[in-house]
Amino acid sequence: MSKPDKKATRETQSINVFFEHNKFLPLLYGHGDANLKRLEQALNVELVARGNMLSITGNKRDIDATEILLQSLYRQIENGVEITDTDFDAAVRMMPPVNDKKPKNRHGLESVDTDVYIRTMRKTITPYSHVQANYIRALYDNELVFALGPAGTGKTYIAVAMAVYMFLNKKVERIILSRPAVEAGEKLGFLPGDMKDKLDPYMRPLYDALFDMMPADRVQECIENGEIELAPLAFMRGRTFSNAFVILDEAQNTTRTQMKMFLTRMGERSRMIITGDQSQIDLPKDIKSGLTDCIPKVESIPGIEVVRFSDGDVVRHPLAAKIIKAYDDWDAKKKQYAEERGEGGVGD
């Protein structure tokens, strides 16, 4: 039996875009159509090139964004501007999200609560990039979402914002935030204090995001009465999450058994968001990441969405994106060198 075609379950359409001069298209599409492949991943579209015609298939928002970007870059190339890989990635990163028309509220005013905004008690979260906008839409539309990519892209922060939004609007009764307590250079047993004191540092990024969305006293009250729970993944076995918004952060550090256990905890009226950076796995080298193992198995299932961020989506200090790219380039060169020498891995 063939796997269900996930793309067929989405509301998609297609358009054809025509470019006047074929000679500019290799520069626009990139070597081996590399630029088109980047766009497919970043903007969630399918691109098929035939001569001077390019077919774009996807959601209307994403089609519009893709056409606008390609036409802009084509005009630059036509005017003699050389577009490098870095220029192309920057153009994708700097694209403003395509906003839907805002619905009217009962007073006849435009409401900010559209699918590319998340309103919490302390702030309204808006996307910085098209990928972030698609991530927010995925959180609204799907019960299970994977967010993959480097630190600083907003994966966890936006997920916590959506959890708070749904909790405040009575769409779920509680929020459960979890992380695997994997030692990344530190020895957990040697940290001072009781078990809570030892585990709090692992949960601190989730606390920080919560305090950005809700007043501190409200957060503390919700934690004390069990409406918000922060717990290591190891404490999740044997439980079922019903009517809850559940976030598993740093999921690249789960084992395959832990990931399967977590996914099967999902109960009625619940949402699960799983975030991780597959380039930052802290597990022992002989243990495969549960996140890496899981994605190809479940990605095609309708109702599950996988959103992939790249280093170009980092919204921290500009140096952060450059540092991430430098590490990725270094690892790629080491891997290529190892493969050329017939070695199995990448050295330090």
Quick rundown:
This protein has eleven helices and eleven strands.
Task: Describe it.
By secondary structure, this protein is of the alpha/beta class. The protein is 39% helix and 15% strand. It contains 11 helices and 11 strands. The protein has helices at 25-29, 34-43, 60-78, 85-93, 130-141, 155-168, 195-213, 216-224, 256-263, 290-298, 318-340; strands at 13-18, 46-50, 53-58, 118-119, 124-125, 144-148, 174-179, 228-232, 244-248, 271-276, 304-308. Strands 8-7-9-10-6-11 form a 6-stranded parallel β-sheet, sandwiched between helices. A 3-stranded antiparallel β-sheet has the order 1-3-2, with helices on one face. Strands 4-5 form a two-stranded antiparallel sheet.
